Amino acid sequence: MASKYHLENSGIYLANTDIPRNKLGITDSEELHELERELLEEAYLIFHDELDDETVFDEKYFKSLHRRTFENLYEWAGEYRRFNMVKGGSRFCQAAFLESESRKLFNKFAGMDYLKNAEKLSKVEFVNQLAYFKGELITLHPFYELNGRSTRLFIDMITAYNGYGFVDYSTVTPSEYIAASIDCVQFANCDAMAKIISDGLGVLKTENK
Ligand SMILES: Nc1ncnc2c1ncn2[C@@H]1O[C@H](COP(=O)(O)OP(=O)(O)OP(=O)(O)O)[C@@H](O)[C@H]1O
Ligand SMILES: [Mg+2]
Predict the structure, then answer these.
(1) Quick one: 4-208 is in which CATH superfamily?
(2) What's the sign of the alpha-carbon dihedral 22, 141, 177, 159?
(3) 3-state class (DSSP) for residue 91
(4) What spacing in Å lies between the alpha carbon of 53 and ligand 1's midpoint?
(5) Among 4, 34, 141, 186, which one is most buried in terms of CB atoms within 10 A?
(6) Ligand 2 center to 33 CA (angstroms)
(7) 178 lines ligand 1 (CB under 6 A)
(8) Is the distance from CB of 143 to CB of 66 less than 8 angstroms?
(9) Which residues pair with 91 in a beta bridge?
(10) Does residue 6 contact residue 83 with C-beta atoms inside 8 Å?
(11) Does the beta carbon of 147 sit less than 6 angstroms from any atom of ligand 1?
(12) What does the alpha-carbon distance between residue 13 and residue 181 come to, in Å, rounded to a whole number?
């Protein structure tokens, strides 16, 4: 289980803080958050621009989003964590099983054609499958930090690929988002996450034509 001991001694955080050590030596959390926000904004432009028929939403792609977005800031960008973590009452996938669980999950996703086929699905089916997959990624919580943002980035690239816009989370409060995440992790129930995605998803471009 992730104890404070683990976190403090992991080398990931500056001593006695929740500020990750970073390549720029930033020690101010506001400054770090602002930089992370800018990097993520740039990443959305770059990855969106790169989307094409050849894009495969596999594990390599998922890791590459985290790595390429944050590699100038964090040593561990794109790397799975090596210690166990809990948040609130939720226990995420044990570090020892991350690689194998992730492989299993992405194999399953491959069997779903990486959800590159939304035109064959109703919006409800597409959203339910996305929410299931997103809930499994939330349960993995594979990176030391920035799991929420990189998972949303990943899901947004899939929705964008399929002609939907990015998911709009602006009307969701942080506590609603956490509650939906808890349902995924602790109860394997992704209904609330599906509702969040559904509410935030624009209409298919083809429906606008
Ligand atoms: N108590 C909890 N139970 C289950 N999942 C949780 C809990 N608290 C947070 N999470 C999940 O962990 C994610 C946060 O992970 P992390 O801090 O690594 O990334 P982040 O990019 O800072 O996320 P965010 O921007 O969503 O706060 C949340 O988005 C949520 O899905
Ligand atoms: Mg966080």
Answers:
(1) Fido-like domain (1.10.3290.10)
(2) positive
(3) strand
(4) 31
(5) 141
(6) 10
(7) yes
(8) yes
(9) 86
(10) yes
(11) yes
(12) 24
pLDDT score, position 7: 55
Q: Kindly identify the ligand whose nearest atom is closest to the C-alpha of 144.
A: 1
Q: What is the DSSP letter of 159?
A: H
The single residue listed with the structure tokens 């992704």 is: 190
- Distance (Å, rounded) from C-alpha 187 to C-alpha 36? 31
Using an 8 Å Cβ cutoff, are 158 and 117 in contact?
no
Task: Report the half-sphere exposure of 167 (CA within 13 A, side-chain side).
Answer: 23
pLDDT in the model for residue 207:
45
Centre of ligand 1 to C-alpha 206, Å, is 33
Sign, CA dihedral 13-105-184-51, equals positive
Q: Which amino acid is at 178?
A: I
Structure tokens at 151: 């998972």
3-state secondary structure of 86: strand
- Residues in the chain predicted with pLDDT less than 50, given as ranges, are 1-5, 8, 206-209
The answer, yes or no, to whether any atom of ligand 1 lies below 6 A from the CB of 88, is: yes
The domain segmentation of the chain, as residue ranges, is 4-208
Tokens of 167: 């998911």
- Of 142, 159, 147, nearest to 36 by C-alpha is 147
CB atoms closer than 10 angstroms to residue 143: 24
